[in-house]
Structures are given as structure tokens and as C-alpha cells.
Amino acid sequence: MSTLEFRNTRFLGDDGLFDVMVDAGHVARISPAGTSVGTSASIDLDGRILVPGLWDEHVHFTQWTIQQSRLDLGGTTGPDDVLERVRQELGRAILPEGSVLTGFGFRDGTWADPPGLRALDEVTGTAPVVLISADLHCAWMNSAAASRLGVQPDAFGLVRETAWFGASQRLLEISPPTTAQFRAAAQAAARRGIVGVVDFENSDNLSQWTQRVADGVDSLRVEAAVWPQRLEAAIADGRRTGDLLDAGGLLTMGRLKVVVDGSLNTRTALCWDPYPGLEGVHGCGVSTVSPDELRDLLVRAQAHGIRAAVHAIGDRANAEVIDIFEELGTGGTIEHAQLVGTDDFARFARLGLVASVQPEHAMDDRDVADRHWAGRTDRAFAFGSLHEAGVTLRFGSDAPVSPLDPWFAISAATARSRDDRAPWHPEQRVPLEVALASSMRGRLRPATGDVADLAVLEADPRSATPAALRSLPVAATLIAGRFTHTTLG
């Protein structure tokens, strides 16, 4: 690898100017500006800010990649609005033989009327149509699509949770993203300063990412998770969390992902209190993996060097997951942690558990939470309470649930507002330095000896408004000293 020198750069928290030398993929030297040794490859940053590269700690990369080509249902206000978009889309073109019209992004948690199977069938006829909710935990589909995917929708036309997870994989097999689409999605992430993602896609992540990297999808580092159905194969292959899986060092074996409950918008997150109006349906939410099953999975994974990442959204789900971690005496991450019991913040910290959270979800779901978690939202998306208790925070997007852009998360966590609305539970804001560190794996400035995974910022986030943070310009991104994005001359 060649030597590269950045001159006249600033660091967060230090307004002095520095020269930074990158050699053999590492930060080799940091010195006051004007004291560099000089190299043939030298770039004057002219006061731009150099930071550690950003990470998105929770994505579904295949879903994010293909979502960009699906019918956009974001912002729809009810089933009639969705049906009209579907009607217009079907009127524009005839579906190719064997394909499925797929939409994404409806949020029915605050709709006055529910979806309906008959209404969707009347609009779509025999054309298979699948409409995926923004939280990825259910899909509204017509009878033709249900038959094609081998599932049975309820009276609303909805397929939820475990049944939907299996069907979604079959749907992706019908029309998977291309290598070019994966490459474009990775490059778009690099343009936002991202050097790595933790991919929780429910697929054969290890082999698929190995092939993608070999095919030139090389703009990101990837930590690839396994789900329970692939745990034994990973063990048989001798895979351990942290193992490198490719010669270039981009792909790493991640964690075991276990989903123990549902989601807020689908009203399946497992809570101690019932959802209004759903007492006779699924009451307080659903348990998709019982505590006994979770215990067995974690024991098995831990014995073979595979750490755990457990999806828990409702307060009962979080309490039960914390119980298991405490019983086993092992650490791990809890993904989402959207509603946490008052007494569980301290337990979270005492056990050293990491809260892998998605701050933009608080903005997307504030109205749903006010409706379905009424009286409990002081501890919903409670990033401030987690931080004050001493819990390590890691930020992500859950893309495509929210955009794969860490600056959205940083803005949401520090402002608790979007679109000029009043801050929602502003007491749960975190300081900007905490939000940045939670997107940079705990570091706000490079250090000598670090792997040169870096981002160059055109503006100082410390002086940016919440709206400006969302579009903060990134001049360059590097992985191990290699540019994955640059607008520098």
C-alpha cells in the first residue's frame, strides 16, 4: 500500500491543525501542521475535519439494496391510499412473467382502518402483489402472492413475523438484486462516510458476502451475522465471531442473530401491557423465541466462540433477554431495545450489554408509540436513560426501515425532532459527542497505529443544526488508506 499524507486537518474536539500520514493501511504519524516529512502523495485538507470512519451497526443489506427498486409506499395514510398507488403501478405496465409486484414502506400503526385481503384482491386480480411494512415484520399480500409464496394471510391480508420472514426469503429468490445494485448501494454508503456495516440479513450471509466481495463489492467492511437456522453450519465450518472470511480483510464473521419478539408498528413487540384494542388478538405482543429456546441457542453459540445479538423491542422481551444474559454470565448486544423497564437500565449497564439502537426509529414511530405505548413513552427509545446508566450505545439504521445514513441517526439522537416538530421526550437526547462516538465505534479522532478507516468532513458537526446534520457533506472516505469515496482534488 502507498503512503498518503493529509495536511492541515482538524480533529473533533481540537481546533488545532495537524498533518496525518497514512502508510501500509494504518495511521503512521500525527504531527502539528507544517511538521510533516513530505510524501509524493499529499493532500491539503484546508481545515476539513478528519474522523474515524462511521459504522452502521444494524442493516439488512439485501433488503436495503432491492428496496430502491420497489414501489414506494412511504407516507401513505391508510389502506385506500396504498391501494391507489398499487392501482396506478399496475396500470403503468404489465408484470413480466413470473414476477411479483412488490411495494415497501407502509406504516399501519396509526391508520384509522386496517388493511384488507378482499380489497387488495379486487384491485390486483391475479397479479401477485406483496406490500412490505416499513418495519419488515409483516406484509400485506393478495391471494395470488400468498399462493405463490406458500403462506396463509389472515383476514386483513397480513402475514406476520416468522411466517413472513420465511416468505420474504422466497420472494428475494424470485428476483434477487444484481451485483451492480449491491455495488451501487455500498458506494452510496461510502459517500456518507461509512466504512462498515453489520449485516443482519436473514440469508446465507457468509457465502453470499464472500461472493459479493469477490465480485468487486468492496466499498465497505461487513460483519455478517448468522440466524439460528444456519448456526450449526457455521459451527461445522469452524466460524467464530471476529474471524476474517476473505483475503482482503473486508468480511468478518459476525454474531448469532436471534429475534425474540416482533415490532411496535406491527403491534407484536412483547410488552407487559396490552396493545389498545388488540386484547383478543395477540394482546401484549408475541414471543417468537422463548426464553428456554434463547438460552439453548446462546449456550450452543458461546461454546463455539460465536457471540450473540438479540432482537428485543418490548419491555417484557428486553427483561427476559437481560435475564438470560445475566443467568449465563455472558455479554452481548441487544438490538433495538425500544421499550425498557425502569429497573432494567441499570441491569443493562451492570451486565456490560451493548444497546444497538436506531435513533431515526424514534422519529418514525413517535406517533405509533404515543398511541400504543401510551403512558410508557418516557422510557421508549430511551437513549438518554441508557447512556446515563452507563450503557454502551451503538447506532444503526435497520435499513431499509430507515435510510442507511449515520447522520440521520446522529441528528435524531441529539435533537429528538424532525421536520420542524417539537422534540419528542427531549430528556432522552444524548450529547453530540456521544452520538458521534456511537457511530464511530467509540472514537472521535484517529490515533497513531489505527487502521486508516477514515472520513473527511466538509463541515463541523458541532456547529450544524439538526437539519444540517442530516445532510452533512462528506469529502472522502477511506478503508485501510484506500479511497472508497472522494471529492478531493
In short, what is this structure?
This protein has 489 residues and is an alpha/beta fold. The protein has helices spanning 61-67, 79-92, 117-124, 143-149, 161-174, 179-190, 205-214, 231-236, 291-303, 315-328, 344-350, 359-372, 383-389, 406-415, 432-439, 466-470; strands spanning 4-11, 14-23, 26-32, 42-44, 49-52, 54-59, 71-72, 101-106, 129-133, 138-141, 158-160, 194-199, 221-226, 251-259, 308-312, 333-336, 354-357, 392-395, 454-457, 474-479, 482-486. The chain has an eight-stranded parallel beta sheet.
Can you give a write-up of this model?
With 489 residues, the protein is of the alpha/beta class. It folds into three domains: 1-47 and 446-489, Roll (Urease, subunit C, domain 1), CATH 2.30.40; 55-61 and 179-443, Metal-dependent hydrolases (TIM Barrel, Alpha-Beta Barrel), CATH 3.20.20.140; 69-174, Diaminopimelate Epimerase, Chain A, domain 1. Helices cover 32% and strands 23% of the residues. The strands form four sheets. It has an eight-stranded parallel beta sheet with strand order 6-12-13-14-15-16-17-18. Strands 7-8-9-10-11 form a five-stranded mixed beta sheet. Strand 1 (4-11) and strand 2 form a beta hairpin. Helix 1 (61-67) crosses helix 6 and helix 14 (406-415) runs antiparallel to helix 15 (432-439). The longest helix has 14 residues, at 79-92. It holds the Pfam family Amidohydro_3. This is Amidohydrolase family protein. Residues 43-484 form the Amidohydrolase domain.
